[in-house]
Amino acid sequence: MIGILGLGASFPPDVRTNAWWPPEVVARWSANRPPLPVAPAAASEGVRRVVAAMSAQALDPFQGARERRVAPAEDSAIDLGERASRMAIERAGIDPAQIDLVLMFTVVPDVLLSNPAAILHHRLGLSPTCLALQTEAAAYSFLAQLALAEAMVAAGRARVALLVQASIATRFVAPDDPGSPLFGDGATAVIVGPVSRDRGIEATAHFTDGRYPDGLVMSVPGGCWFDQGRPLIHNKNPAQMREVFLSTADVCKDGIDAVLAKTAHTIDDVDFLCVFQGTPWLREVVHDYIGATGCRSVELFSQFGYMAAAMIPANLYLAEQQGVLRDDDLVVLTGGGTGVTYGATLLRWGR
Q1: Domain-embedded: residue 91
Q2: Residue 281 lies in a domain
Q3: In total, how many domains does the chain have?
Q4: CA distance 245 to 255
Q5: Is residue 293 scored above 90 in pLDDT?
Q6: What is the rounded average pLDDT of the residues 196-211?
Q7: What is the DSSP string of 260-273?
Q8: 165: left (phi > 0), else alpha (psi -120 to 50), else beta?
Q9: Residue 310 near residue 142, CB atoms below 8 Å
Q10: CB atoms within 10 A of CB 212
Q11: What CATH code is carried by the domain that includes residue 302?
C-alpha cells in the first residue's frame, strides 16, 4: 500500500487580524455588498444549503476570516516550501536520497519558464535522478499530486515522493478588494511512500468540468497576466464564480460518494473527514449534507484564511498535532479547484 509517511508545514509568524483593514474600507465593502444569491426552484439540496450558509454570513464583511498569516517581503513561495519540506522529511524519518519524485504547486511562482520544483530540489540536495515537476490544478493540486505520487510509487518508478503546496497570495491581492481578508500565506509538504498493508490509499475519484475557467484568476484585471499593469488575484467573472460557489457542497458530495462506491465502506465507517475549506461554512455544510455527523474534523479557515492547495495538508497537519487524527483512522479528503477539477481520496491513516 502507498500512503502518507510524514507532514510538514511552514506558517509565517506575522498574524494579520481584521483590525489591519481601515474602518472606511470595511464600511465601503458593507455598503457595496452584492445581492444575496437565490436558490432556483429546481436547485439541489446542496445548492439550497450553500445559499443558506452564504445568507447567514452575509453581514460579515470579513466572510468568516478572523486571522491569516502573512509572509515577509523577503520570503518566496520556495522559501516557505523548503521549510515545510525539511520538516516533513524529518517527521517521516526518511533519507532524502530516497526521494525520487518532487511535485510542487505554488499559487504564484517567482518567475515563469523556470521550474520551482527544480529550485526546491537543489536546495534540499536531492539526487540528480529525482524527477522534479511543477503541478498546476489550482486548489485541487494536492489531491492531484497525491494520485500521481501513488501511481509512481506503486509502479516502482519512485521510492518516495515529496509533495509541496505553497501560497504567498496576500501580496497579490489588492488590500481594498473585498476578497482580500480571505487570503493567507503558508506552505505544506507531504512525504508519500510505502506503508503497512492495512494502511494507505484505498481509492481515489477525480472529476473535471471546464465550463467555469474565469472565476478566481491571476492576471492584470481586464486582461492577461502579460498585459501592461500589475497582475492581481481577482474574480474575473462573478457569474461563473457564483456558479462554482453554489455547487461546492454538491461537488464534495459527488467526490465522497464516488470514492466510497469504489470500496466496501460507507460514510458511517469514516473517522476523519477533511473537507477543503475555501470558505468558513463549507466544512459544516458538507458534514450535515452527507450525514457525516460522527466524523471528526478540524476548522482552520478562520485562523489561516485561504491557502489554496495547502488547505487539505494543513488540515491534516493540524489535526495530527492536536490528536484529532489518529493511526488507523479511515480518512476521506475532498475538495476542488478553480478551472474546475474536483474529487476525493480515501485512505487508512498511519505508516
Answers
A1: no
A2: yes
A3: 1
A4: 16
A5: no
A6: 95
A7: HHTSS--GGG-SEE
A8: beta
A9: yes
A10: 18
A11: 3.40.47.10
Residue 38 lies in a domain: no
| Domain extent at residue 331 | 201-348
Has this prediction a pTM greater than 0.85?
Answer: yes
Residue 282: count other Cβ atoms within 10 Å of its Cβ.
24
Which residue, among 67, 78, 73, 95, has the nearest Cα to 5 in the 3D structure?
95
Residue 308 lies in a domain: yes
**Rounded to 5 degrees, what angle do the CA atoms 69, 71, 76 make?**
140
Which residues on neighbouring strands pair with residue 2, listed in sequence order? Answer: 194
End-to-end CA distance of the chain: 10
Place of cell 487508512: 348
Question: Cell numbers 487580524 label which residue?
Answer: 17
pLDDT tens for residues 140-167?
999 999 999 999 999 999 999 999 999 9
| DSSP label of 125 | T
Give the cell for residue 73. 517581503
3-class secondary structure for 171-221?
Answer: HHCCCCCCCHHHECEEEEEEEEEECCCCCEEEEEEEEECCCCCCCEEEECC
Residue showing cell 502579460: 226
